[in-house]
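queue> holo job accepted (calcium ion)
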Amino acid sequence: MTLPGPSAPLYLDCDTGVDDSLALAYLLAAPEVDLVGVGSVSGNIDARQGAVNSLDLLALAGRDDVPVAVGAHDPLVGSYDGGAPSVHGRNGVGDVALPPSGREVTAESAVELLLRLSHEHAGLLRVVAVGPLTNLALALRADPTLPERVLDVTVMGGAALHPGNVTPAAEANIAKDPEAAAEVLAVDWDVTLVPLDVTMAHVFEEADRKALLEAGTALAPWLGEVLDLYFGFHVPTFGRRCSALHDPLAAAIAVGGVTPTVAPRVPVVVDATDGPGRGQTVCDLRGLYAGYPDVPGARTRVVLATDAPLAPHLVERLLTL
Ligand code: BDR
Ligand code: CA
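queue> job finished
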């Protein structure tokens, strides 16, 4: 077992993706954590391309020491749906050709990497998952004792009192593998769910993107380029070029860069039926009029509000890369 150190070991599971790229970079810049592994999963892009994107971003940050493993190509039920090319580009990083890292993915799968890291950092490992939860569900199936060795899990996903973003009820990460999300949220571990209710309230503007483009550092200007297509995607939603900060908000909450101010522990059930609610995160928020007290026995913390805007903090950290 690793002795407690100045920064906590953290495994990132992602479908790298534009906002996943920001989350990965934020975690690299965060002194509070030591990024010890990155797993990919199909979501915004297929799992293999997602891993290549992570390798390329890590190389630009000078972090070729971080292992990157390919995870699940298909969800637990059905097949990969082809991703979201109109949102994240055909390559996941806004159709920007990042300089190839020249590095290979690990021989072990994302599930094997997560399980190995959970033993190497038993009791200390923090998990941040910002894509579909297929890898986490498969890891739990392979080793149901995994939660005993994980300190906490932060998930970008779901919509509590907010509409979905891929169906009226469902958010993309949960919608792409509801069965996996249902399994992950049914397990007894310390999960913080960061849903659309808060991620849509944290936005990057053109001034933030410009700051990255002009950074004069190795990685940040590339992130500014990668954001271009994603800014266009958000015009019908916000009426201007900008972007929601889904995945970096989950990363920032995980490491304490942004603090939840309303985040009750409540029962959360994922709708994995085939009806119109498929992929919905049904959160028991009937405590609304009582100030959202924790529900006794509930494991999942659902973030509904935070103390500060993420964007200035995110820019400050990304400008160091
Ligand atoms: C989530 O879905 C993906 O498109 C993003 O990367 C984010 O993880 C938002 O619904
Ligand atoms: Ca994502």
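queue> The domain at 8-318 is CATH 3.90.245.10 (Inosine-uridine Nucleoside N-ribohydrolase; Chain A).
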